[in-house]
Amino acid sequence: MKYIDEFRNENTAISLSKNIASLAKGHDTITIMEVCGSHTMSVYKYGLKKLLPQNIRLLSGPGCPVCVTPVSYIDTAISILHKYTNNGANNNNITIATFGDLMKVPGSYSSLENEKSKGAHVAVVYSTLDALRLAKRHPERCVIFMAIGFETTAPTVAASVIEAEKRGLKNYFLLTSHKIMPPVMKSLLNSRELNINGFLCPAHVSTIIGSKPYEFIARDYNITCVIAGFEPLDILYGIYMLLEQIIKKEPCVNIQYSRVVKPEGNPTALALLDKIFEPYDAEWRGMGVIPESGLKLKSRYERFDALTLMQNKSEIRNLKSEIKGCMCGDILRGVKTPNECKLFRKVCNPEHPVGACMVSSEGTCAAYYKYGE
Amino acid sequence: MCLALPMKLIKNNGITGIAELGGLQREIGLQLLENVNVGDYIIVHAGYAIQKLDLIEASKTIALFESMGYPHEIHR
Q: Which residue of B has its CA nearest to A20?
């Protein structure tokens, strides 16, 4: 496939790996955090760890939207379903539209998959275009789209709001839990739990936001950032670029994925985000509330908020219990690896996930499980 | 979840279009891009084009990989 296969060439990968080894030779351990779950998946899928010398350590970060979705978000969705299904068939008019990855994520007492098996209307969609189609086809139902994702996905949701407004779709709603990356990276750096030398920054988040939002990391924390694509050669070359800057001790932000990422990002998408959403202090699974790290609907678009379907907040059944023994939070912060979790493989596996890092196909635990680290 | 693939735009209807990858065609949203034309390669995420692929930069990156040296012992 054009513009994909060129970035998966095995011989070039081996050549890049030798160049990395020669650059890293004689240096102390260099730790690089790949912030994004899609990078983690590529690293495991293509066996890239085996192509790196022993003194380069890759650490997975918090960039997996499903993994960081808090228990309370799933509980809220299920509370809305229950309110409208427990009151008899006449009121049973809620359809939840969601990306497939969220289906198995455990809330504190149920999951969307579990609710679907009990008869609730839960539809897996590929995009907000599908959710809009559902709303148009079923004017008698309220279609609630589970709006999760980072800066990559949020503009597609913003576009759906504009479209729903234009088409006069009064039965389209969002349950939002959008997150943004730079504040969580800042929070990781401030916690001082992490000892890293560089960030491999997300490819498609940066497609939207550009390279400028990472500049404070190089300037204030002396940590080098490289925005790399998700193909194996992009990642290897991104690591090579990181090493060059780390060794020179000249922290900066560089773009490896220049065929897609521009310093200014995507101005059309950014303008749309700004029109529909505003930042707020958001909760991350296992990491608590991080200042200005989420996006919520602006008051002008409040009528799209699925929470307006609940008359009062007390109707939301939220047990707030983090799951006992689950180390997702520590793993998302890069301070523990799945092998250090007592539940990993024994109780928690892809068939019966306990924590969200095992549910999402790009969660660190799922990658460790599948590729057997 | 932030995966996105390069697809070729084969039809532009304004707000939406049809894009193709490996023989597979899909309707995609075009609201997030300006000045996109049939024949352009676009990066598609969750049903929307989020950026155009810069063909010149793509060739530069490939040329850079190749210029990094190609250890002779791995020639087949």
A: B68
Tell me if A156 and B58 make a contact (CB, 8 A cut-off).
Answer: no
Q: What angle do CA A104, A38, B34 make, to 5 degrees?
A: 105
Instruction: Establish if A121 belongs to a structural domain.
Output: yes
Q: What is the pTM of this model?
A: 0.94
- Exposure class string for A275-285: b at 16+ Cβ within 10 A, else e: ebbeeeebbbb
Q: What amino acid is encoded at A166 in this protein?
A: K
Cβ neighbour number for residue B56 with a 10 Å cutoff: 9
Which of B27, B58, B68 lies nearest to residue A259, judging by beta carbons? B58
Least confident among A84-88, A109-113, A154-158, A212-216: A84-88
Nearest CB partner across the interface for A258, out of B21, B61, B70: B61
Q: How many CB atoms lie within 10 A of CB A47?
A: 11
Mean pLDDT by 10 residues, chain B (76 residues): 92 96 95 96 97 97 84 43
Q: What is the ipTM of this complex?
A: 0.92
Q: What is the DSSP string of B4-62?
A: -EEEEEEEE-SSEEEEEETTEEEEEE-TT-SS--TT-EEEEETTEEEEE--HHHHHHHH
Burial class for A261, CB neighbours closer than 10 Å (0-12, 13-18, 19+): buried
Q: Is the pLDDT reported for residue A305 higher than 80?
A: yes
- Tally Cβ neighbours within 10 Å of residue A27: 14
- Asked if residue A53 belongs to a domain, the reply is yes
Residues A211 and A242 in one domain: yes
The closest alpha carbon to A182, from A219, A149, A151, belongs to A151
Task: Please give the pLDDT value at position A91.
Answer: 52
Q: Do residue A147 and residue A85 come from a single domain?
A: yes
Contact across the interface for A15 and B74, Cβ inside 8 Å:
yes
Q: What CATH number does the domain containing A88 carry?
A: 3.40.50.11740
Higher local confidence (pLDDT), A31 or A87: A31
* pLDDT higher than threshold 70 for residue A147: yes
Instruction: Provide the residue range defining the domain that includes A216.
Output: 5-66+198-255
Domain range B5-74, CATH class: mainly beta
Angle between helices A364-371 and A37-45 (to 10 degrees): 10
Note whether B47 contacts A260, CB cutoff 8 Å: no
Taking CA atoms, A48 is separated from A10, A13, A80, in Å, by 11, 9, 43
Structure tokens at A329: 């939070």
- How do the domains of chain B map onto residue ranges? 5-74
